[in-house]
Every structure is written in C-alpha cells, then in structure tokens.
Amino acid sequence: MKKSWKLLSVMMIVALFIAALAGCGNDSNNAGGSNAAAGEGGIAKIKERGKLQVGVKFDTKLFGLKDPASGQVEGFDIDISKAIAKHILGDENAIELKEVTSKTRIPMLNNGEIDMVVATMTITEERKKEVDFSDVYFQAGQSLLVKKGSPVTGLESLTKDSTVLGSKGSTSVKNIKEKVPGITVLEFDNYQDAFTALKTGKGDALTTDDSILYGMAAQDSNYEVVGKPFTDEPYGIAVQKGNSEVVKAINDTLAELKSSGEYDKIYEKWIGKKPAE
User: What three-state secondary structure class fits 58?
Assistant: First the structure.
C-alpha cells in the first residue's frame, strides 16, 4: 500500500513538472507575439460578424466629425472606411464606427474592440512595435493654428515662454517639444477641447497636422493656420500585429480607389483640392 502511494505521488509530481515546462514553453513562444495570435483570422471574424468595426475620430472636421443633430459621423476617414467595408463585405454600410482618440485608439484596437483604426494616425517606428500599418493613405505635415493677428506666425516665432496646446497621445506633442526645447505644452483628450482652450486664451497656438487644423479654421474664420509644415506625417490604417490578411484587404482597397480615380474624388470632396502628385 505504501509502495502504491509513493508511486502515485511520484507520478503526480512528474505530471505537474511536465505541465509547468509546457506552460513556460507557451509563454516563451507567445512573448511579444500575443497580438499576432489575436490578429490572426481577422477577415473570417469580420465576415462572420457581418460588420466592420472601425475606430474613427468624432471631433476632427474633414476627417471624422459627428453631427450632434443627426448623429452621423462624416469625413475623409469615414469614406475610406466605407470603401474598405465594401471591399471586404460587399456593402459600404456594413460598418460600425466607434469613437477613438489619439490616446485610446491603440488600446481599443489591441483589446479587440475594433478591427482597425482609421483616425489621422501617423505611421512611426515606435507605433510599429504595437500595431501593423497599411500603406500611406494620406500625407500630412504638422503646423500651427492661431487667432488671426497673433504674433505667432510659424514655428520660428515660438519660444520656451510660449504655451502650445495639443492632444494626448499624439506625435504632435512630442514633435513640438523637440522643436522648441522648454516650451509649455498643455494636453487635452481631444482636438475640440484643445480648440476650445485656444479660444479661451489658454495657449498661444494649437499644434497638430495641418489637415486637422484646416478643419478647425473652417469651423471658425477667426482662426488661421500659419507657417510652413515642419514635419512629415504619413497617415496609415492600423490593425493588430500579425493580421496580414486585413492589411492586404486595406491595401487592395486603397489601390483600387487610386486606380479608379475614386480616391481623388474623396480627397477633393473633403480637402478642397486634388492630392499632390
């Protein structure tokens, strides 16, 4: 009886040891690759759901702005998103738009709340560590928005005593701090809050991509974009890492839009001019 009990105990210890080794092996294999696993089979999931879930801005005129009266979200990013939905599901209206900000878009993507981010998101090497990007779908550059008559006429007129407003989690905040060492930057949850702060005199200028700033200037003619763009901001559509299927579907959609001339129509509709060659 004692021998049987000892044998059983040894067998249980060996089994536990093997299970522990297997667990360690899985952790090792998944280290840095959990998002890749989460990103696999994205097209099948979208088709099974019957709807494309896209993270877009609700506060960015020309790209993604929600009309409080109708509840509709409209803009350049929305039209691109609809084209992707049509490519994948055959229906541009088979889409669910979810609000994201510069701060929330990557967490929401990697939590599986959305299939992709189409939200004026600049492709950077740092972000490539967290997500995968499509080809560039819009080319922008960082600039400044000020009240007309402001002494701020461009980047060169800012000093460490200036106060600039920006959006949390955006590359613009990092860029302006590098361009003007010691400058004060106030960060807000979204661009509309930052624009309101500019209007109430909390800063000398608001900085982000010129494409977004032109939308703000269109909202209020008392404000204007000044100076030349001082960064290169290529926008990409983000998906979970490892989701090459969805990246291909997006890139195929962009290629189709450009070859058919539809991309130029969408660009001119929202930006007011044809894209630069």
Answer: coil
Point out which residues pair with 188 in neighbouring strands: 167
Of all residues in the chain, what percent carry a pLDDT higher than 70?
Answer: 85
Are the C-beta atoms of residues 55 and 96 closer than 8 Å to each other?
no
> Model pTM?
0.74
SS3 90: coil
Q: What's the sign of the alpha-carbon dihedral 114, 70, 87, 214? A: negative
pLDDT surpassing 70 at residue 111:
yes
List, by residue range, all CATH 3.40.190.10 domains of the chain. Answer: 48-139+234-271, 141-232
CATH classification of 48-139+234-271, choosing from 3.20.20.100, 3.40.190.10, 3.80.30.20, 1.20.1440.20? 3.40.190.10
CATH number given to 141-232? 3.40.190.10
Residue matched to tokens 């209020």: 220
Q: Is the pLDDT of residue 241 over 80?
A: yes
First to last CA, the chain: 86
Chain length of the chain: 277
